[in-house]
């Protein structure tokens, strides 16, 4: 009987289990945004204050005036910036100085559940992605008036946008483990935003408003009592503390899972070839099979949620169609809760283009605790890139992302079963090299079908700082008659195949050499050999 009672209690629905009140902290109600790390915002009008543990900046429109009406607390302010702090600003401050206990927001995100109480809606999400007002209130208004609050218990990135018919974003967002991006087309965010990191991006960012109209519901239930040491304070402290933590730190990003790196694993023998994707999309599987896919879309190159003892890894590529061929224009890698995006450029005088957690050219030397090094090829204005050193867990292994003009390539150096043995995606099965579908069973020998199979889905959280079409459910865009157009192009080419072969002659790998020849013929650019 005791066993039956225990089982019955274990399977009680949330609505019948014990509940504890976990109200929104009073101190939070004076702010439009509360951010643990950095806030990069071009919003021209912020109705409340901001509490930012790191750097407040505006790299989108640094010369446009922005207005913050409420009292604010920030670690530091990055210049150039034109900001009117109407309510005053305290620099060198921490979140504690603003009366904010971050661990309380983490507790709320982990313990709330979806329900509706007295006309106020509470939503619990365990994955990120792109959202608009209709995601939570179908047919709802942008002016939410404090009626809806959404908790995100995930390290996934979150993008807030307008609805398909142009309505602004309404709910309050509590996302203490996630980086939140507000797209310029959102118009305004009516509710309060609490996020690990916050940035504005896309068109019309200078027209954004942050209202800070916080959730007004008085019945906000949690499944567990608040930790006794995490009671939120009633207001800002009288004096700032010594200052924010220097940025970037050497430790992995914090989140709901433990992202600290465990001790290095014993050396293991590489069991796979150096998988890669490069340029005019040439893919090399873990077993060194080469194939091409010339569609345009965002695709999963590699994915393993259990990578590095649960940190998780996901590498996405974005391709762009040019006539009968396409190329990789950008690549983005997520390890743990950190995201690093790289994009190529045809302009040799431009700076290396990258985004770290959606912030352009952020000062960074680690990703999720793994050392990150930027590289320039000596004597070249085009070849640039970076290396992620995985040796702390997987000795001798690296991930290399490089650009050549507007082309991007991704290489996995010395991969082992310990690191990528369970990965899925366009590089195929690590042990067999089979080009497996998402079900892990079906083998796609048609590479057009295989490429479409690994298009990024809405549940996989696009990792790029802006949205480009097509996005699922729209299919990847494919060239018309690629083979026929290719043959016509070869006949009309001003660069002969002999010239292309001569330019690529120094490449030792036969299949890489063939890819190089193809790239030169397709682009009519003899310098493409420099990408190899």
Strand content: 25-35%
Q: Label the overall shape.
A: globular
How far apart lie the N and C ends?
A: 70 Å
Radius of gyration: 25 Å
Helix content range: 10-25%
Write down how many β-strands occur, each being a DSSP E stretch of 2 or more residues: 33
Based on secondary structure, the structural category is alpha/beta
Task: Give start-end ranges of low-pLDDT stretches.
Answer: 1-16, 229-270, 378-382, 482-488
- Count of DSSP-assigned helices: 8
Overall pLDDT level: 82
| Sheet with the most strands, sense and barrel status | 12 strands, mixed
Write the layout of secondary structure elements.
Layout: H1 2-10, E1 20-21, E2 31-35, E3 39-40, E4 45-46, E5 49-57, E6 65-68, E7 72-77, E8 82-85, E9 89-90, H2 102-111, E10 115-117, E11 120-125, E12 129-131, E13 148-152, E14 158-160, E15 172-183, E16 188-189, E17 193-201, E18 209-210, E19 221-222, E20 276-278, E21 282-284, E22 290-292, E23 298-304, H3 307-310, E24 313-322, E25 325-335, E26 338-343, E27 353-356, E28 359-360, E29 366-367, E30 370-376, E31 384-389, E32 398-404, E33 407-413, H4 417-420, H5 447-453, H6 482-492, H7 497-503, H8 510-523
Parallel strand pairs: 2-5, 2-17, 3-5, 3-17, 4-6, 4-18, 5-7, 6-8, 7-9, 11-13, 12-14, 13-15, 14-15, 15-17, 16-18
Antiparallel strand pairs: 1-19, 10-11, 20-21, 20-33, 21-22, 23-24, 24-25, 25-26, 26-27, 27-28, 29-30, 30-31, 31-32, 32-33
Helix pairs in contact: 7-8
């Amino acid at each position: 009987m005791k066993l039956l009672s225990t089982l019955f209690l274990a399977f009680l629905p949330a609505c019948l289990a014990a509940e504890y009140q976990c109200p929104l902290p009073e101190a939070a109600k004076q702010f439009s945004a509360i951010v643990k790390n950095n806030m990069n915002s071009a919003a021209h009008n912020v109705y409340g204050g901001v509490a930012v543990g790191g750097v407040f900046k505006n790299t989108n429109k640094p010369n446009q005036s922005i207005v913050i009406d409420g009292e604010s607390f920030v670690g530091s302010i990055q210049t150039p910036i034109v900001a009117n702090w109407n309510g005053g600003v305290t620099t060198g401050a921490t979140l504690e100085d603003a009366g904010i206990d971050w661990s309380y927001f983490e507790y709320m995100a982990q313990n709330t559940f979806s329900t509706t109480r007295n006309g106020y809606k509470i939503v619990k999400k365990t994955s990120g992605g792109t959202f608009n007002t209709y995601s939570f209130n179908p047919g709802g208004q942008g002016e939410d008036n404090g009626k809806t609050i959404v908790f995100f218990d995930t390290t996934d990135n979150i993008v807030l946008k307008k609805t398909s018919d142009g309505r602004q974003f309404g709910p309050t967002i509590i996302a203490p483990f996630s980086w939140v991006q507000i797209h310029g087309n959102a118009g305004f965010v009516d509710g309060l935003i609490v996020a690990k990191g916050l940035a504005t991006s896309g068109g019309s960012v200078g027209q954004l408003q942050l209202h800070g109209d916080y959730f007004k519901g008085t019945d906000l239930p949690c499944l567990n009592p608040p930790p006794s040491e995490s009671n939120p304070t009633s207001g800002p402290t009288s004096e700032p503390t010594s200052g924010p933590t220097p940025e970037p730190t050497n430790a992995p990003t914090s989140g709901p899972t433990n992202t600290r790196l465990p001790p290095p694993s014993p050396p293991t023998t590489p069991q796979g070839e150096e998988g890669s994707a490069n340029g005019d999309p040439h893919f090399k599987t873990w077993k060194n099979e080469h194939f091409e896919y010339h569609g345009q879309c965002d695709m999963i190159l590699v994915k393993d949620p259990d990578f590095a003892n649960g940190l998780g890894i996901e590498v996405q590529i974005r391709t762009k169609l040019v006539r009968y061929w396409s190329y990789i224009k950008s690549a983005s890698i997520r390890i743990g809760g950190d995201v690093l995006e790289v994009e190529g450029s045809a302009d040799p005088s431009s700076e290396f283009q990258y985004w770290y957690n959606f912030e352009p050219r952020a000062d960074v030397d680690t990703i999720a605790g793994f050392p990150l090094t930027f590289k320039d090829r000596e004597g070249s204005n085009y070849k640039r890139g970076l290396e992620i050193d995985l040796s702390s867990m997987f000795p001798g292994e690296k991930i290399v992302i490089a650009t050549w003009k507007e082309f991007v390539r991704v290489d996995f150096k010395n991969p082992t079963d310990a690191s990528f043995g369970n990965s899925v995606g366009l590089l195929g099965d690590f042990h067999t090299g089979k080009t497996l579908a998402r079900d892990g069973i079906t083998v796609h020998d048609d590479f057009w079908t295989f490429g479409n199979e690994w298009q990024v889905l809405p549940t996989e959280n696009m990792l790029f700082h802006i949205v480009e079409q097509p996005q699922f459910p729209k299919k990847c865009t494919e060239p018309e008659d690629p083979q026929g157009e290719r043959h016509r192009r070869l006949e009309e080419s001003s660069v002969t195949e002999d010239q292309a072969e001569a330019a690529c002659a120094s490449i030792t790998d036969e299949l890489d050499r063939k890819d190089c020849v193809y790239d030169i013929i397709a682009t009519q650019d003899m310098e493409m050999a420099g990408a190899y």
